[in-house]
Amino acid sequence: METSQSNEPCTSPLSAPPSGGDTGCDLVTVPARQGLEAVDILRRGATDAMGPVLHDDGCGTLGFLVPAGTAACWDVPGSTCTETNGRGLRLNPEPPVEGSDWLLPPGEADLATDPVVLRRALGEAARLIEAADNCR
């Protein structure tokens, strides 16, 4: 697994929720193994920068809700960021995809995961996984 090593990560211009109460989000999707490591890293961190996390058992992925607009500049290899343009994913207690479930549901987390913090956590997770795999 590889992650971007950009010195100046792109940040979303829409890091605050849009006005009018709209809480549209983009979704960063990663393989479950890397995502679970990143969740652990984020939970151990000094900041409460983690938003809701969706687990899709069928695809073996984890999805991190990030502020709308993040997809425009997301470039972390091994992950995808789906743009919703304000018409897709909403914070709702019901999982938005059949066969998925919330690992960290809305209401128990921040509105969205900070993309800069997520980028760092995914990078650290990839390095930990690579180190563990090389020890076998």
Describe the protein's topology.
Layout: E1 25-31, H1 32-44, E2 53-56, E3 61-67, E4 80-82, E5 100-104, H2 115-134
Helix pairs in contact: 1-2
Explain how this protein is built.
The chain is an alpha+beta fold. Helices cover 24% and strands 19% of the residues. It has helices at 32-44, 115-134; strands at residues 25-31, 53-56, 61-67, 80-82, 100-104. The longest helix is centred in the last third of the chain and has 20 residues, at 115-134. It is globular and about 40 Å long. The relative contact order is 0.28.
Order of helices and strands: EHEEEEH
Strand portion: 15-25%
Q: Averaging pLDDT over every residue, what do you get?
A: 78
Largest sheet: 5 strands, antiparallel
Structural class: alpha+beta
Helix amount? 10-25%
Notable features of this structure?
alpha+beta, disordered N terminus, globular, five-stranded antiparallel beta sheet, 19% strand, single chain, 136 residues
Summarize, please:
By secondary structure, this protein is of the alpha+beta class. The chain has helices spanning 32-44, 115-134; strands at 25-31, 53-56, 61-67, 80-82, 100-104.
